[in-house]
Write a structure and sequence with these properties.
Chain lengths: 791, 159
């Protein structure tokens, strides 16, 4: 970056509320999603799944299915064993069965794969496969999984004698925490669970695999969030040359973390194409999506918080992480609890400590970050829920307690007690802006009046600091891959530009935002910049889109690539203007001679010259391009102040989110319309998680939320009209000062909502905590003094 | 069995299995993939099309039941390249992100405005409450429908 010039902030061209370039195809029904793709001769696959959560497989009989006139193949674990593909590595260096051979370990686990001429026949044939199971006792509760007599789930792993999935992991200083807690004026202790929930993108997961037996070329159509990283993983697992694999994502109907992992169905589709020599499409149904693909959260947390002289001084927590049957948690490999140790929140603490242990249970694997940067959501929920309860018990205002305890602006860069270096922020300013929009004092007056009348109104506050944009390669990788992102920019001779990126939109509008970044840096209209993504043959390597990392990493890469092109443009312009590069100054779209602004070369003219016939300055090659592989020097730390107003029906315990105020500080905003859109979507998902979205199991391990009849997602009726605000504290180390925003709202909103409900019920009913989801049955039970965590 | 369904003004005749869902008929035969499938259980609304002018979830209609009926999909909404005001409203108000729910939302909203040209925010929220959007948080969808209502009132385009 030392070789690049800085853009002038006075003459913006790219940033602002530009309408989205990608809308044109979507509003006409012309998006191209996975299931829209039809290849000649394509076959269809379907997965047979286990009805049991834990059972030995005695036998699998496939002859009746094979006799179906439209069925070509039935693949089982035995077939995969001959190819060395019966098991695959997970994103967390665990192993996961592609198809179960010895036993099944969760309900919905993949057992066989049918390939037929059409999708209906493939599904019909599933019912013709006979599997004899010998049921085993199941365990679905994380604490019970640790008991001595718990059934052993991972008997496939050498030396595994219990259900611990990883060793105890700690951060912070326990002794220091002991001391700070001993000296505190007040300590609040709370066992809470962040229940298992599911990203449930509206488009489910799927794959079309097309292996060309003559050339060995493997084309994969697959809507995933990290196509370049997936390609590397497939190459390593299958032993294929990476350059002979091409992944094309096309349009993706939402991801939210669910489309980060490699799923067994993908591998089955690839094997299916290899053995049939034809393209094989597999698209899961909604139940398969909810019951078998990456869930989120499932953290059992025992938290403690303390305060002295009206300030928060310490936080500590012991966590049991429930990974399900296989540990496929999505996180940088050196971070077994993701970024959970940011649980210190936005506060200048004297001490902090956490311990995390992880267990196997007879539940689906996953631990993906549902609109979350690697467990930061659990961390923020923990600390903000503890602060909420602390404020209730100290009988002080939650906003005041937070402001008394915040990291102050002059303390940045701020090193917290668990090793993070926060980049920038002005937390009190952000908090006060939210209070201004909310009319906070007036709300408190209204609440007091309503209390007099027996009405249950609650005001919940949450203030979060996220850690996103993973991440510096000196600290983090995923499966040995550095977490950098590439950007290739080419300015064509007609002044139009093409930017190829490794980030992968699932609705985030990269085609617009990234064009605006280049526009800002090069002075080319965003309309003349095409952004390419989602095709490994046409994009540079990089780790993709999750953990709010697109703008912090890939966006930075685009800006740096554009600056490199601009630097080269300067050299060409110097030749054109017969002067030295040092005598030129930049303003959006042109290099001009200092002191003689009329003498200038526009970027269009420079681009034409770059490819033209006239000689270029000595030693300069033709073309106008810029390339970058951006390795972020630090993570970014967006923050936000959220205020939620709820009314709880005293008769039915139904919670209505009446108002929701969200003030986000995500640094420099490239397109405020798109930023606000990201925030509103995250708020709706936060309402879902807080009030209705949960994946639960009975004691036999049957999933009780395996369809949208039972996995409830908020509609327009459960969501208020969001009230948004902004403060802007630029990121000091990002080329354009941006911090990322995609997941902020899902982090901040659940604790704000739960804090609001507890604020409504604490004085009248003594309710200081209810585990999510706060559906009427659970809130009613809490009001009667019978609160139970969800199972 | 053979069925004939009028889709966007064109009769489509095909031999089908009785179990074939209308959503798959629409997507497979004329290849109109703007109508999406999302849930199996009539909860998500990604598959909404209009049948005889009323919104239906095409994952919950057998193709055989649509015999002789008129189906209208997202692909027929713009006329001679001119966007329907609802389509334009979704663009103007940022009423979409990943785009997967968008055709179902737009067809639902179109049916609402055909029946109620000047809906309130509450009426819009109720009308689209059978459709799930995972991306937008709905506020901008409500604004998009209001945009369409206001611009349609100013410039009626239908006879």
């Amino acid at each position: 970056m030392a070789t690049t010039t800085a853009a002038s902030p006075e003459t913006p061209i790219g940033y602002g509320r530009m309408k989205r370039k990608e809308d044109a195809r979507f509003i006409r029904g012309q998006g191209k999603y996975l299931d829209d793709i039809v290849l000649p001769g394509m076959l269809h696959g379907a997965v047979l799944r286990s009805p049991y959560a834990h059972a030995k497989i005695v036998s699998i009989e496939t002859s009746a299915a094979l006799a179906h006139p439209k069925v070509l193949r039935v693949i089982t674990a035995k077939d995969l064993e001959t190819l060395g593909l019966a098991w695959m590595p997970t994103i967390s260096y665990d192993s996961q069965a592609v198809l179960a051979g010895d036993k099944v370990r969760f309900q919905g686990q993949e057992v066989a794969f049918v390939i037929a001429e059409d999708r209906y026949s493939a599904r019909d044939a599933l019912e013709l496969i006979e599997v004899e199971y010998e049921p085993l006792p199941a365990v679905v509760n994380a604490r019970k999984a640790l008991e001595a007599d718990a059934p052993l789930i991972r008997d496939d792993k050498d030396g595994q004698t219990d259900n611990l999935a990883s060793p105890l992991w700690e951060a912070g200083d326990a002794e220091e925490a002991d001391q700070v807690f001993a000296e505190a004026d007040i300590v609040v202790e709370r066992e809470m669970i962040y229940p298992r929930c599911h990203p449930a993108p509206l488009e489910t997961c799927g794959m079309i695999a097309d292996m060309n037996p003559e050339t060995g070329q493997l084309d994969l159509y697959n809507g995933n969030q990290a196509p370049n990283a997936h390609r590397t993983v497939y190459a390593q697992v299958a032993g294929l040359p990476e350059h002979m694999i091409r992944i094309m994502t096309n349009d993706i109907g939402g991801g939210f973390g669910n489309k980060v992992p490699v799923y067994p169905g993908y591998v089955c589709a690839i094997v299916g194409s290899i053995v049939t020599g034809k393209p094989v499409k597999w698209v899961e149904d909604r139940s398969e999506n909810l019951m078998s693909t990456g869930f989120a959260r499932d953290y059992v947390m025992h938290g403690r918080i303390c305060a002295k002289h009206g300030r928060i001084t310490g936080v500590r927590v012991d966590v049991i992480a429930d990974h399900g049957a296989f540990d496929s948690t999505a996180q940088p490999s050196k971070f077994p609890a993701g970024f959970f140790h940011i649980f210190t929140g936005s506060y200048d603490l004297e001490a902090a400590h956490c311990s995390v242990k992880a267990v196997y249970t007879n539940k689906a694997p996953g631990g993906v970050a549902y609109r979350c940067s690697f467990r930061v959501t659990e961390a923020i929920y923990l600390v903000e829920r503890l602060v909420g309860e602390l404020a209730l018990k100290m009988e002080v205002d939650g906003a005041e307690l937070r402001m008394n305890s915040f990291i102050r602006p002059e303390q940045f860069p701020y090193e917290n007690k668990t090793g993070w270096t926060y980049d920038s922020g002005d937390y009190e300013k952000t908090m006060r802006e939210a209070m201004r929009i909310a009319g906070y004092d007036e709300l408190r007056r209204e609440q007091a009046e309503k209390r007099e009348r027996g009405e249950l109104m609650g005001i919940g506050v949450a203030f979060f600091t996220e850690v996103v944009g993973a991440g510096p390669r000196r600290h983090m990788d995923i499966l040995g891959l550095g977490m950098a992102d590439g950007a290739d920019l080419r300015v064509h001779d007609d002044g139009r530009a093409v930017l190829s990126i490794s980030a992968q939109t699932q609705g985030q509008a990269h085609e617009t935002t990234f064009a605006q970044i280049v526009a800002e840096e090069l002075g080319i209209s965003p309309d003349k910049i095409e952004v390419r993504h989602g095709d490994t043959d046409r994009t540079p390597f990089g780790l993709g889109t999750y953990g709010s990392r697109s703008t912090p990493v890939s966006g930075a890469s685009a800006a740096v690539a554009a600056r490199r092109a601009r630097d080269k443009a300067r050299l060409i312009a110097a030749g054109m203007l017969e002067t030295s590069p040092e005598d030129l100054a930049w303003e959006k779209g042109r290099w001009y001679v200092k002191g003689d602004p009329e003498k200038a070369a526009t970027i269009d003219e420079i681009a034409a010259a770059a490819y033209g016939e006239a000689p270029l300055p000595e030693g300069l090659e033709g073309g106008l391009e810029g390339q970058s592989v951006y390795d972020p020097p630090n993570l970014t730390y967006p923050c936000g102040a959220y205020i939620c107003v709820v009314d709880v029906d005293p008769g039915t315990a139904e919670v209505e989110v009446r108002r929701f105020i969200a003030v986000d500080d995500c640094g420099v905003r490239i397109n405020p319309m798109i930023v606000d859109g990201q925030i509103m979507g995250g708020l709706a998902e936060g309402v879902g998680i807080a009030l209705m979205e949960v994946i639960t199991f009975d004691e036999q391990g049957n999933c009780l939320n395996g369809s949208m009849m039972d996995y409830l997602i908020p509609t327009a009726l459960e969501c208020p009209d969001w009230e948004l605000g902004a403060t802007v504290t630029p990121c000091p180390h990002h080329p354009i000062g941006a911090k990322g925003v995609g997941e902020s709202a899902t982090n901040g909103s659940p604790p704000a909502i739960v804090n609001a409900v507890c604020d409504a019920l604490y004085r009248s009913h003594g309710v200081a905590h209810i585990d999510m989801p706060l559906n009427p049955a659970r809130v009613w039970a809490a009001m009667q003094g019978r609160a139970e965590p969800p199972q | 069995m053979e069925v004939t369904i009028n889709i966007n003004g064109e009769p489509v005749t095909r031999e089908i299995e009785p179990a074939l869902l209308l959503v798959h008929f629409i997507r497979d035969t004329p290849g109109l993939t703007g109508t999406h499938w999302g849930c199996d259980t009539s909860n998500c609304g990604a598959c909404v099309v209009q049948m005889d002018g009323l919104p239906v979830k095409s994952c919950t209609v057998l193709a055989a039941m649509a015999e002789g009926h008129e189906i209208r999909t997202i692909e027929a909404l713009s006329i001679d390249g001119v966007l329907d005001p609802v389509q334009q409203g979704f663009h103007e108000e940022h009423g979409l992100q990943c785009g997967f729910c968008t055709p179902g939302m737009i067809m639902t909203a179109r049916a609402l405005l055909d029946a109620n040209p000047d809906p309130t925010e509450d009426e819009i929220r109720t009308a689209i409450s059978g459709a799930i959007c995972r991306c937008t948080g709905y506020s901008n969808i409500v604004r998009a429908v209001r945009w369409a209502a206001e611009h349609e009132a100013a410039q009626p385009r239908r006879s």
